[in-house]
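Now for one protein, fold included:
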Amino acid sequence: MATDNGSALSHLIALIQPDRHQTTELDNIVRRLEFLQQLFAAPVQPDPAYINQNIREIRDQINAVRNSVSWIPSPAQESAFDDFLGEMDELPGGFSKFRKKHPILTAACGGALVVGGSLALGPALLVGGLNLLGFSAAGPVAGSIAAGIQSAVYGGAVASGSAFALAQSAAMGGVAVASGAELVAAVVAAGAGATMIKKAKDDQDDQDDEGGSNNE
């Protein structure tokens, strides 16, 4: 993204750089454009949502300065503004274009997200289910299903390695459960993966339909 999406940006900066101190608004635009250029050139790309937010704010500033009378851009500068804004319009659709071109790879990535999220959620769901049955971190809860099973089946002695002992061990911390933030991330990842799979399937179906129509 650093080189492909930076050509119009670099050209715009070069054209308006000499005029940047004519108005405070124009100087601010140049500063924001230079910051955006640094984001594109970063070895590790930041969150796309953060980049898009900066682009929206720069767009608003550009529209404001172009509509003002404090600075009149030259035809070349006007053209550079249009080229930059047009190039930035293509950024949000980058993944959509990739998805349509590579639906199978996208589905595989979505599947990986679903599996990863499920693996993180599994232990939490297991412990949550055990808690509902009465298995707690301090032992079976009095009057619960777990306490009833212990009394009716095992009496006062629960054999080591039995299903009851394993369930109680899990409830007492024998199963590692992710933190709240990690569980939220797991839910988001699984949901995003499922969405990717669905969209990739839709794209693949569209390609198959187009292929069938072309063969008729």
User: Anything to note?
Assistant: Confidence is low (pLDDT under 50) at residues 1-5. The first helix runs from residue 7 to 16.
